[in-house]
Each structure stands twice: as C-alpha cells, then as structure tokens.
Amino acid sequence: MNIFRFAGDMTHLMSILILLLKIYATKSCAGISLKTQELYALVFLTRYLDQFTDYVSLYNSVMKVVFIASSLAIVWCMRRHPLVRKSYDKDLDTFRHQYVLLACFVLALLLHEIFTFQEVFWAFSIYLEAVAILPQLVLLQRSGNVDNLTGQYVLFLGAYRGLYIINWIYRYFTEDHFTRWIACVSGLVQTALYADFFYYYYLSWKTNTKLKLPA
C-alpha cells in the first residue's frame, strides 16, 4: 500500500458515492448508462474471485466487498427500482457492449500472465475496466447536456485511474518484482478515453457554464 493507491481507492469510492447520491437523492438515473454499470459489476465480480481464498488485509477485503455490493446495488436500482428505472433512457444507451465483452474475453485468453482460471478472469476484468466507460461517454455525447453529479461521477472515475497509473510507476521503481504490465497498459488506454471529457469539463469549469459534450 502506498499513498497513490490509497488516494486512487478513495477517489474511486467517491465516484461511486456520488452516483449513489444522485440515484437515491433524486430517484433518477438520467444520464447514466446501465450498460456501463453492468460492465463495472462484471469487472468486480471477475476480479475478486479470490475474495474467499486469498486473504491480503482487512482493508483489501472490505474494499472488494464495497465495490461488488455498490455496483450490484446500482444495477438493481436502474433495473428494478419503481421510480429510478423510469428515468433510464434506453434509447440513448445503445452502445453494443456485448462485442466489448467478447473482445475482452478473447484477449484475456490470449494475453495473460499465468494460465489459470483466476488469472485469466483477472486479465479479463482489467481489459474490461479499460473500456467499460465507453457506453457512458457515448450516452453523454448523444444527450449533450451533463448534469453536475453525473459530470463529477465521470471526473472522479478518471481521476482514480490517473492516480493508479502514478501508483504503478511508483511500484515499478520501488519494488523488485512488479510485473503487472497488463494493468499498466490497460490503465493508460482507459485514461486516454477520458481525455476528451476532461478537456470539456475544464472548459466548463473555466467559463462557469454547463458542461456539454459535442455530438
């Protein structure tokens, strides 16, 4: 554990809390992609298959449970909550995420560090997380206007990944056998996907105007 990873975890947790606040306070999921949330739930479920077999620390175990439970709660609300689900706009959330799932699974079978059940699904979760934000970004581009909570949610998600890249750089220079190259490359790809959003978020903040993404 180092300060960069801890800051990344807290930023990631903050993004989830912002999204839960939006859903429970407004009883609305307008502007949120269900497909992205389903992909993130699958990311956590496949990454933390070792939850009951490999104990690292109490902090590690608690964070795994929090990420799994919160992602499933968000998906449940968007699908089943009688008020929240009415605000979901499936006409805008049309990204074909099934192709992303298939591509990430094939990639995990071809490119992994150790050919075991857990390691292949760990690689799958890393590849999938790198592109899981795509349906959300596409939905925001199609809708045009982005409300404050949704914008902050995406901003904190991107900041979390940026902090994790710093964490990997730090570990590379301070640990003798740091070889998680799959996570490093995927993290760079994921951060690059946020670049356009960061640019328009900065313009919105600088000019004190409502955040809008170009179609």
TrEMBL record:
Keywords: Endoplasmic reticulum, ER-Golgi transport, Membrane, Protein transport, Receptor, Signal, Transmembrane, Transmembrane helix, Transport. Coiled coil: none annotated. The chain crosses the membrane at residues 58-78, 99-115, 121-141, 153-173, 179-202. It is found in: Endoplasmic reticulum membrane. It is a multi-pass membrane protein. Its main location: endoplasmic reticulum. It comes from the Eukaryota. Pfam families: ER_lumen_recept. Residues 1-25 form the signal peptide. InterPro entries: ER_ret_rcpt. Belongs to the ERD2 family. This is ER lumen protein-retaining receptor. The gene is A09p047950.1_BraROA.
